[in-house]
Write a structure and sequence with these properties.
The complex is a heterodimer of chains A (115) and B (110). By secondary structure, chain A is an all-beta fold. Chain A is 0% helix and 49% strand. Chain A starts with a strand and ends with a strand. Chain A contains no helices and eleven strands. The model of chain A has no long low-confidence stretch (mean pLDDT 92). In chain A, a hairpin with a 6-residue loop joins strand 7 and strand 8. Chain B is mostly beta strands and 110 residues long. Helix content of chain B is 0%, strand content 58%. In chain B, the strands form two sheets. In chain B, strands 2, 4, 5, 9, 10 and 11 form a six-stranded mixed beta sheet that branches. Chain B has a five-stranded antiparallel beta sheet with strand order 1-3-8-7-6, with no helix packed on it. Chain B starts with a strand and ends with a strand. Classes of the chains: A mainly beta (115), B mainly beta (110). Chains A and B meet through strand 4, strand 5 and strand 10 of A and strand 4, strand 5, strand 9 and strand 10 of B.
Chain lengths: 115, 110
């Protein structure tokens, strides 16, 4: 049973380009959470999605960032017109229901570098 | 401000010693979780303690929760060099998402 799969592991983008980060939750998990981690800091919540629905996007910047979790396929975190400040590690977690019922399962993250 | 805040920020001990990390939070919670993160890697879930529990053990890990003081501690006994990592607490409320602190960086010297 594969865990949470994130790809790519590393992504380099030039300023102004778009970044697409993918997250496939664990089998049987329909709840996905995206977090961002800056160097030497903890994880900051971005968005919580259930299949085809955004439940909580209170941590998402109002501009350039969007997320989706379609009926089929992985969850996508999309960052348009990236800037240097978007450089960070982006982690996805999944759970079978709302909240960390038994603790989240995290993916290995996507490390985005904007040059 | 952070819902969960770990203390100390950094801890350095010798192999074989015990390591204690603390976490404080501000609002009522459903549960509290502890995670470990090795440098450059993802988070690994260690232990979850529910709001009606006071203490939980898992191998060399012991977690306590004091809801009256809104605090938790993680004790790692007989530490090993492989325990070197950052440790984060996260609190879960009715909102469905967890809020993480900035972590404690533990260094265990051989």
């Amino acid at each position: 049973n594969a865990g949470v799969m994130q790809n790519p592991r590393h992504l380099v983008r030039r300023r102004g380009q778009e970044a697409r980060l993918r997250c496939s939750p664990m089998k049987g998990h329909s709840h996905v959470y995206w977090y961002r981690q800056l160097p030497e800091e903890g994880l900051k919540f971005m968005v919580y999605l259930q299949k085809e629905n955004i439940i909580d996007e209170s941590g998402m910047p109002k501009e350039r960032f969007s997320a989706e979790f379609p009926k089929e396929g992985p969850s996508i975190l999309r960052i348009q017109q990236v800037v240097r400040g978007d450089s960070a590690a982006y982690f996805c977690a999944s759970s079978p229901g709302q909240g960390a019922l038994e603790g989240y399962t995290f993916g290995s993250g996507t490390r985005l570098t904007v040059v | 401000s952070q819902q969960g805040e770990e203390d100390p920020q950094a801890l350095s001990i010798q192999e074989g010693e015990n390591a204690t990390m603390n976490c404080s939070y501000k609002t009522s919670i459903n549960n509290l979780q502890w995670y470990r993160q090795n440098s450059g890697r993802g988070l690994v879930h260690l232990i979850l303690i529910r709001s009606n529990e006071r203490e939980k053990h898992s191998g060399r890990l012991r977690v306590t929760l004091d809801t009256s003081k809104k605090s938790s501690s993680l004790l790692i006994t007989a530490s090993r060099a492989a325990d070197t990592a950052s440790y984060f607490c996260a609190t879960d409320t009715n909102a469905g998402k967890s809020t993480f602190g900035d972590g404690t960086t533990l260094t265990v010297k051989p």
